[in-house]
């Protein structure tokens, strides 16, 4: 008598789940799965490109080996993506856990659909992405890689424009033969408090600021969390408390309530302020496909409400989890977040009529990503304490390509940039309607070309309960209009675009080691770049983080 039949005999009414039927994968086969969006319309739209890259992968495997593909999950009537955590869990329940597995990504994906199953998969694992601006599997792959790192699951990563180049073939061959893909990581330098920068004047000031945060606490207010399936953006509470940046858990329903208290006249005054200061809005009348005044007035109410909540809770920064939930309730959060993070901001009165934090940005944590919120808060506090411009933002590492023998990254986010980061400031910004595929309720972007200048960049991730901070520097450029427009049209044309060269970090180096699709940036004066970078690194060390300098980082 089997165990299950014995239990069934003792408990005749038991409904015992039946064990899955698992067949070993033949040696000539490699498992392949593809993760997708939680939003069905996005999966349907992106399926044709995904399907074409699955065919490219099959052709590449045939070209270099005898391997064939076995799909982990079936193609549905409208697409072949995994579209939910339940679907991903069910698909992997019957998978041979020791077989080699490739996760092929050509679009945005919600990492939590598959990450819990990948943690339990025992076979070699490769995260494979296309490198494209319009269909950015590289963005989804960087997020999934960061998630797996945070969950302490080993994996390999690989990327390619069309799956036919030598770099791709060599990496795929190595995965087939060894179960891993190795990359050069010489651009990473793990430092500690014995590093020379720690004892410089800048380093000592950074220690002072780090100690201030540990004692004073910088509270990060988040209106819900876990946006866009980003497990790597949800840090353990102990990790946050250890570094002096605890979280204030807020509710998006509270934000909606606060928005409802903003009178129409104040909304109108807010919108008029931005128009009077030169921002252009591409207004139309069709709510479904065009930007309307009502959508922007909704965003003005959100801006005012978020500022008031920031003051009420004594927050250092605030973030809004627009996807999912709020997207079905109000216009997009991006204009409100970008405006909030700007020094040039509509004077927002509290309930007593006093202006909230006049002359100072309020760091806005787009997509409630704690891994960007941590460096944003720290950079704001450091720069503001020195009397320097302290606006920060995050960007997606969206794409990149060569122009006149130089590789420039295209950093892009859905509208959440401070006006000070744009060429021309408020007057250089245009508000377009957010893409209807993702933003049914519409709302304005803050669009334009980001200004030229040097910047410090950073990203925090966690391993266990230890916070890791990667720090680098770069130069933003203003490309000629024709080239800028080419890049804009190859990504999302209504979003702000920052074209950058990272100091000492090429395309493949960043793709090999960055632990997120997001990157935090703050412009600084070139003369002060080394001093600020040293102070920031020492600050992170003093707060108990593991610190890695990335690329050619100047210190002083």
Keywords:
16 helices, 19 strands, L-fucose Isomerase, Chain A, domain 3, five-stranded parallel sheet, 556 residues
Characterise the protein shown here.
The protein is of the alpha/beta class. The chain folds into two domains: 29-178, Rossmann fold (3-Layer(aba) Sandwich), CATH 3.40.50; 191-550, L-fucose/L-arabinose isomerase, C-terminal (L-fucose Isomerase, Chain A, domain 3). It is built from 16 helices and 19 strands. It has helices spanning 3-10, 40-64, 85-93, 115-120, 137-150, 166-178, 201-216, 237-242, 252-260, 264-276, 293-313, 334-340, 370-385, 481-490, 507-513, 529-542, and strands at residues 29-33, 68-71, 101-105, 125-130, 156-160, 188-191, 220-223, 247-250, 280-281, 317-320, 364-366, 393-403, 406-412, 430-431, 453-463, 466-477, 497-502, 518-524, 546-550. The strands form four sheets. Strands 12-13-17-16-15-18 form a six-stranded antiparallel barrel, surrounded by four helices. It has a five-stranded parallel β-sheet with strand order 2-1-3-4-5, with helices on both faces. The longest helix is centred in the first third of the chain and has 25 residues, at 40-64. The termini are far apart. The model has no long low-confidence stretch (mean pLDDT 96).
């Amino acid at each position: 008598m089997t165990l299950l039949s014995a239990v069934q005999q003792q408990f005749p009414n038991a409904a015992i789940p039946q064990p899955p039927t698992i067949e070993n994968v033949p040696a000539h086969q490699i498992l392949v799965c593809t993760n997708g969006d939680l939003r069905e319309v996005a999966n349907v739209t992106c399926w044709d490109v995904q399907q074409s890259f699955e065919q490219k992968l099959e052709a590449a495997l045939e070209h270099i080996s005898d391997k064939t593909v076995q799909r982990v999950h079936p193609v549905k009537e409208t697409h072949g993506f995994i579209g939910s955590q339940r679907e991903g869990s069910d698909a992997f329940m019957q998978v041979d856990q020791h077989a080699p597995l490739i996760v092929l990504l050509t679009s945005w994906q919600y990492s939590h659909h598959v990450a819990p199953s990948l943690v339990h998969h025992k076979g070699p694992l490769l995260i494979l992405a296309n490198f494209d601006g319009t269909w950015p599997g590289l963005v989804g792959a960087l997020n999934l890689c960061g998630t797996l790192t945070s969950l302490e699951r080993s994996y390999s990563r690989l990327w390619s424009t069309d799956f036919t180049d030598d770099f791709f073939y060599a990496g795929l061959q190595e995965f087939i033969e060894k179960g891993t893909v190795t990359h050069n990581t010489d651009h990473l330098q793990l430092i500690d408090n014995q590093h020379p920068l720690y004892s410089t004047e800048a380093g000592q000031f950074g220690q002072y600021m780090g100690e201030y945060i540990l004692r004073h606490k910088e509270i990060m207010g988040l209106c819900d969390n876990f946006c866009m399936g980003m497990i790597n953006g949800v840090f353990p509470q102990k990790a946050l408390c250890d570094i002096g940046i605890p979280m204030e858990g807020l509710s998006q329903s509270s934000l909606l309530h606060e928005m409802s208290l903003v009178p129409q006249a104040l909304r109108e005054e807010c919108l008029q302020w931005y128009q009077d200061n030169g921002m252009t809005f591409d207004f139309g009348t069709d709510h479904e496909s065009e930007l309307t005044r009502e959508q922007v007035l909704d965003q003005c109410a959100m801006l005012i409400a978020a500022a008031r909540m920031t003051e009420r809770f004594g927050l250092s920064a605030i973030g809004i989890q627009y996807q999912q939930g709020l997207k079905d309730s109000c216009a997009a959060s991006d204009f409100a977040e970008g405006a909030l993070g700007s020094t040039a901001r509509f004077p927002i009165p509290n309930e007593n009529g006093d202006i909230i934090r006049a002359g100072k940005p309020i760091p806005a944590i787009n997509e409630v990503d704690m891994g960007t919120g941590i460096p944003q808060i720290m950079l704001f506090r450091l720069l503001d304490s020195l009397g320097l411009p302290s606006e920060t933002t995050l960007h997606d590492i969206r794409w990149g390509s060569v122009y006149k023998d130089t590789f420039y990254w295209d950093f892009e986010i859905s509208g959440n940039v401070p006006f000070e980061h744009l060429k021309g400031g408020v007057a250089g910004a245009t508000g377009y309607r957010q893409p209807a595929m993702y933003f049914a309720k519409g709302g304005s972007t803050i669009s334009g070309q980001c200004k030229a200048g040097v910047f410090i960049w950073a990203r925090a991730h966690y391993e266990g309960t230890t916070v890791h901070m990667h720090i680098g520097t770069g130069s933003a450029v203003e490309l000629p209009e024709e080239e800028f427009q080419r890049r804009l049209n190859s990504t999302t044309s209504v979003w702000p675009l920052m074209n950058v060269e990272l100091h000492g970090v090429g395309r493949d180096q960043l793709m090999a080691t960055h632990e997120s699709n997001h990157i935090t940036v703050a412009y600084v004066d070139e003369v002060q770049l080394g001093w600020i970078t040293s102070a920031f690194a020492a600050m992170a060390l003093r707060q108990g983080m593991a610190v890695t300098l990335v690329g050619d980082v100047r210190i002083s």
